Amino acid sequence: MEDTTQNTTSSSSSSSSSTKKYRIPENPSLPPLNFDIQPGRNAPIRQEYLVPVDRKEKSGEEDNDSDKDMDDEAEANDAKGKVGEKRHRDNKKESKKNKKNQARLQRSNGLCLAIIQGKECPYGETCRYSHNVDEYLKNKPQDIGPKCYIFETYGRCPYGICCRFGSAHLNGLQSVVDEKKVAEVGDSLQELNVLSKDLQISLRKKRDYPRSTYIINQLSLPTKGVAADDNNNNNNNNNNTTTTQPSTTQASTSENNTTPTPSSSSSSVIEKPEIEVSDVIQKLTKRERVKIDWKGKLYLAPLTTVGNLPFRRICKGFGADITCGEMALASNIIEGHAPEWALLRRHPSEDLFGIQICGFKLETMMRCGEVLSDENISFDFLDINSGCPIDLVCSMGAGAAMLERPKRVEQILRGLSSIVEKPVTIKFRIGTSEKDPTVHKIVPNLKLWGAEAVTLHGRSRRQRYSKTANWDYIKKCAELSSVPLIGNGDIYNWRDAMAAFENGSKVETVMVARAALIKPWIFTEIKEQRDWDISANERLDMIQEFVNYGLDHWGSDEKGIENTREFLLNWLSFTHRYVPVGLLETLPSRLNDRPPKYFGRSDLETRLSSPNVVDWIKISEMFLGPVPPNFNFTPKHKSNSYEAQGKKKKKKKKKKQH
User: Which position among 112, 163, 324, 388 bears the catalytic label?
Assistant: First the structure.
């Protein structure tokens, strides 16, 4: 494989100029630096790589895209309008219908797991899966490839004749077992936190939560309603939120991200605990916990859908120090909901791993914490999501809506820190509105409430992911915070990360989110302080690695193949936004830079940069074989620059259209 990666050697430069605070690459083949840039600009791609655009087409593109941000959560944007919402609902219904049809087909054609393992099926003739091995083999698609990653890794493949790479380990109908490999690997690579059938049954039955009940009674906390002193009902908070704010903060706020200066006066900080804690509860909250050293450790953000276990393994390979599972609803966890429990799974390579839960009811959150503790679930810290801006979450009082109810934040922190033996952390946004940030009133109290650390995203709930993150405000909050503060927002290159620690900043470390989806090697860039001009072949190797991890996680049978494909396509809907360093006129690149149409230095690099869903499907077929007939895919996290839908149609249908 040709390696075109350019390693950048760096040296310290003079501090006389504000643009020379960073270590500037000496490699002359890299683009020069230019810090005089505006957010949301077009990516500065060299002229020779730009695709000529017709003037009429260019004008139309500008009209359509000028006011659209590159929001990776754009499917939740309320500004779509009725037509856009209807189209989104129709696409969603069509996708859901196709999935149901595919699932029904898989059940009818799929082979029973008991038969695969050579056991007797307990359901007998009522089993919804096939018991006819000959019929299954007759209809089984051709193997995708000659090597089975699962067999090569573990010495056995549990999917037997159903494995789409079965020729690597099948002898007739029997799956070969490499005893030496099995003994060598053992359980060292097995995923942790798998929901057992016994635990699921236990959760679905009436279960006692003695510790949660006892602590709630001791604290005399409301379990279902909201404290009387909380703000108005959350449904009205978007329009009627009033917050006591220092006059200096109001005076210094403007729409162009002018940084409010949080006041340390008593009027801004809740100094007196709102809940009186008994001696028994104090003993519980003060018990010894393993302290986590957050300083300088790079934190991969919990990312819904795309932040799955295989993706986290990719980021660990590139140097991420801290990983966290996708946001899980506390109510679903205590109900034994299998898909929700799947979000808690941990790979042994994740040496510093957190579980993130979301909810607004104290009783539910505490019961969730009690289950995680009592069932010996493997995690190093428990994170509370108080930053999700999606309306579906906020409308029930959870996520970013909790910022408007500081007493509820206090109750949940005190309750969970009393139940869970591991450190409890919390993630916030700066407030409901960027014009009136409020989180600086909360962070001084977090240690008293039981938190061990806090992550702060430098945008408001209403901003979602638009405009730029307010890092000046993040640094001000770090000075006021009683616990280590982790900064989050717009970290896209190593210079952004280094800037978070400048000028005596008390920010403990940084969390990387969307940038990791676009270029997971950002963790290597930050640690080595270099601009990595990664080759197209290396990026393709990374995709192959993700596919291998996906087959390990979701399975190498037909169902596992399609799950791996779906999550791969969702990830490719982000990776195509990466513009190779070698194509840029100037550095650094920014997260919200919009690439014009361009072609790469090779056909592969051009395809990897395509915003067309059909091209993503073709990339998936390189590793997972052809997609089923009439296959279609709609990205779950749609950016406004993406095509709304990609379909793989039969050639006959295409001919009819011409």
Answer: 388
